[in-house]
Structures are given as C-alpha cells and as structure tokens.
Amino acid sequence: MIALRVVRGGTLFSRGVAVVGVVLAALLAPFSIAHAGPRTDLLGGGPGIFCVMFLPTGVHRCVDSPADLVRARSAVIPSRTSVEENGAVRGTNAVFHIATIWDNAGYDSKRGSYEFYAGADCTPSKGDINWQNQNLGSIGWSNRVSSFQSYGNCQTQVFAGLTFTGLIFPVGGFLTASINVGPTMNDNAESIRWS
Predict the structure, then answer these.
(1) CB 114 within 8 A of CB 101
(2) What share of the chain is helix, strand, coil (3-state, %, to 5)?
(3) CB contact set of 146 (below 8 Å; sequence gap of 6+)
(4) pLDDT for 27-45, tens place per residue?
C-alpha cells in the first residue's frame, strides 16, 4: 500500500480504487468458469447454453437465457425473414423449425437446448436424409443430447459416433420425439440426422 501514496495525477482515492480493481481481478481470475461450448458472443451474452442454428449456412448463436433466443433466431435466420416472439417465422424466405434437442431428459432446458432451422421442411419419405450435423462437438454439443422433438415432416436419429457411426437411436429408423434417448445414448450423441 505504500505505492498508493506516491500518486502522479488523479487523487489518492481514484488511484487506490483502480489498484484495488486490478488486484481483485487478478485474485478472482482462477475462479472464472469456462464454457466448453462454442464461443459465439455475437449477442453479448457470452457462450450461452441456449443455441439456434440455420442448417443451410451453418450459422449459429448461443445465448445465456431462453428469453434471448428471439434475438438469436433473428441473428441466425436470413435477413428477409423475421422471427416472432413465439418462434413462428414469417417473411419471404421459407424457414422451418425442424427440431430441438435438450441437454436434459423430458425436454427440460435447465442445462440448455439447441434449435435447428432449415430452408425447407423434411420430405414425407423416410428413405432420404434431408438435414444433418456430422459433428455435434463442432457446435459445443458433443455428448449432451438427452431428449429431442422434431417438427413438420421431420424425424430425428442420433448416433454415438462422428459422421453417423456407432450406436444409433432409435435403432432402425427415426422418431418424431423422444422424452429420453435411454441409458445407452443419453449424453453420448456425436452426430444427428433428420429425415
């Protein structure tokens, strides 16, 4: 504290406050929490746990609260389209909410959720793949999926391995929704497809 008494410009009080701030920041730095997910920061909300992606472009944003998802959707979905409070999409570009995945079972968003949008709905045929993500880790969602809900014509299938390898849920097909992907796949998904 002797250094605080030698002041060039400003007051002893203002210099003291600045030094105390620097000391506190240095002391608290080891206790900061790092998020393993993607650091997108574009909405000022940090890395966040509530995410949205527009699949055709791969653009995605994560925010800290479900309330901020409205802004995240608007930032991700093409500009000629608007997103309303309830998640409905209006405008000249067709945009479809094809699925949401949750970090918890039972569609519980306490630990996060990820919404996926696309430029077209899935086809009614389950013999083709309409949309996919071959590496959920690239968007911060490796080994996190516990439940999912598909929308429109889409149905979901998750894989334990990258690029659609390893264990599959559901085995032999797709599901519109799953309140719990089961003990084998819970927190084990590495890739996902929609048909």
Answers:
(1) yes
(2) 25, 25, 50
(3) 102, 103, 104, 105, 180, 181, 186, 187
(4) 333 322 222 333 333 333 3
Overall average pLDDT of the 160-169 stretch: 97
CA–CA dist 56, 59 (Å, integer): 8
pTM of structure = 0.71
The size of the chain, in residues, is 195
Dihedral class, residue 58 (left if φ above 0, else alpha if ψ from -120 to 50, else beta)? left
Res 89 pLDDT > 70: no
Find the Cα–Cα–Cα–Cα dihedral 53, 33, 102, 123, rounded to 10°. 20
Do the Cβ atoms of 175 and 155 come closer than 8 Å? Answer: yes
Contact, 119 vs 171, CB < 8 A?
Answer: no
Q: H or E stretch including 12?
A: helix 12-28
116: β partners: 53, 99
Taking alpha carbons only, the member of 52, 92, 47 closest to residue 75 is 52
H or E element: which one contains 159?
strand 156-159
Question: What is the Cα–Cα distance from 52 to 19, expressed in whole angstroms?
Answer: 41
pLDDT in tens, 114-160: 999 999 999 998 889 999 999 999 999 999 999 999 999 999 999 99
Task: For strands 168-169 and 81-83, give the pairing.
Answer: unpaired
